[in-house]
Specification:
This protein is an alpha/beta fold. About 40% of the residues lie in helices and about 15% in strands. The chain has a seven-stranded mixed beta sheet, with helices on both faces. It has a five-stranded parallel beta sheet with strand order 2-1-3-4-5, with helices on both faces. The longest helix has 21 residues, at about 25-45. It is globular.
């Protein structure tokens, strides 16, 4: 690669922006708002509840009519060092743990059998074989990456209905496999809306080798593993002669975090639109320590449940109950993480509502099927539509389609940080 002719960072050449135009100012301001909002939503739980009054167990519990005394489900995670093949998504899966606890309040038991696919194709086949032998009625797959396609094929072949809370629809839509992430067309539409938000006419697409361009045409910078700093320099050069520019970034969670940090370090103040990997906790742990890095940052994701709980509608109420359940669990020193290796209190902040909803959906399907047989559960799922009244936190789920979440009317989410945690919220 030819030597880059960059002697100084862009930040050292640019004139200081006015206070109200500097993304750092707004990032810190929004962070303060988030802290205040979260404090208030935890004081004023639901309309009609006095300040500080804890919710009753009847409000916290998930009572699924006709559910059997015990339901066996599988949970597939990817314990690997490779962020491109599923590392970190298991932390968001602690929401499945919250669902298990809440259903348990109704007197029913949900056993979650956790197996790692190691982020490989062979590991995926072995994990599915293990859960097939265990007789699970359904699987929640907490992973993404290239190997996830083989995992989906393996669960389909095994006849076990599987929900991927953090993956987008797979090519050829394997039978009895559902995903909660946006499709390629929905991603392209979301990114286009993000460019409108930033008033961006000249995007620079920067992506790790093998990552998607997110449907954007423009100047393109690709880089190999470990090449984030050099890629940021190239982006800086391109933007220095560009008006109405922005950055569209696509990489795995760890690489994406390093890239965003490098771009900000180079003085890139333009808006950044990030791939869905930005919601992986591995991304957040790197960037959340520096609030200024999150300014002017959009991602393809849903709002954090903390933000949803601020809504004064049925979805906001359900999200508020979910957060209260998570808080109460974190105060119980006897409760463990999903895999039983860590106190739940240490991972509670990562517990995500999408994995919670996946477990609620599968247990509901078992109940409506009147059988623990995985194929009967799959047939029941195909006709199911669930919403907030069914204890679904993230909004309607439609299992008639392989992609069970409708992203067509959604917008990209903005990032802010508080206490070394990233929060994602809707906003123009």
């Amino acid at each position: 690669m030819p030597e880059l002719n960059v002697s100084r960072s862009r930040g050292s050449e640019a004139k200081p922006a006015g206070l109200f135009k500097d993304y750092r100012f707004w990032a810190v301001l929004v962070s303060i708002f988030v802290v205040l909002a979260i404090v208030l939503v935890n004081l004023y739980r639901l309309e009609g509840n006095p300040v500080g009054k804890p919710l009753k167990s009847t409000e916290l519990r998930v009572d699924i009519p006709s559910a059997p005394a015990t339901v066996e489900l599988g949970v597939i995670v990817s314990y690997t060092e490779d962020a491109a093949e599923g590392a970190g998504w298991n932390l968001l899966g602690e929401g499945a743990n919250v669902a298990r606890w809440r259903i348990g309040l109704s007197g029913k038991t949900v056993n979650l059998r956790v197996v790692s696919d190691k982020g490989t194709n062979k590991g995926a086949e072995a994990a599915v074989a293990k859960l097939k032998a265990d007789g699970v009625s359904g699987i929640v797959a907490l992973t993404r990456g290239a190997h996830a396609q083989d995992l989906a094929q393996a669960t389909s072949k095994a006849g076990i209905p599987t929900i991927f809370p953090y993956a987008s629809p797979f090519p050829n839509s394997p039978k009895d496999v559902w995903t909660m992430g946006p499709s390629v067309d929905e991603i392209n539409s979301l990114v286009a809306r993000g460019m409108l938000t930033f008033k961006c006419d000249n995007p620079v697409v920067v992506r790790k080798e093998g990552a998607s361009s997110l449907g954007v045409k423009g100047a393109n910078v690709s880089y190999a593993a470990g090449g984030e700093s050099q890629a940021a320099q190239q982006v800086t050069q391109i933007l220095s002669g560009t008006k109405s520019g922005c950055v569209v970034a696509s990489a795995d969670s760890q690489s994406l975090a390093n890239l965003v940090s490098a771009l900000r370090g180079q003085g890139v103040n333009e808006g950044i639109i990030a791939s869905a990997d930005a919601v992986n906790p591995l991304f957040a742990k790197t960037l959340a320590k520096d609030a200024s890095s999150t300014g002017q940052l959009l991602a393809i994701a849903k709002p954090s449940v903390e933000m949803t709980s601020l809504q004064r509608d049925s979805q906001g109420i359900v999200a508020g109950v979910y957060k209260q359940a998570t808080m109460l669990m974190s105060r119980d020193g006897d409760l463990k993480s999903l895999d039983g290796t860590t106190p739940f209190a240490q991972v509670a902040s990562e517990a995500d509502s999408s994995s919670h909803d996946a477990v609620v959906a599968l247990v509901t399907a078992v109940a409506r099927a009147g059988s623990a047989d995985s194929q009967k559960v799959a047939q029941t799922l195909k006709a199911m539509k669930l919403e907030s009244k069914d204890n679904i936190v993230d909004g309607p789920l439609d299992f008639v389609n392989s992609g069970i979440v409708n992203w067509s009317n959604r917008a990209l989410v903005h990032a802010t940080s508080s206490n070394e945690k990233l929060f994602w919220f809707l906003g123009e």
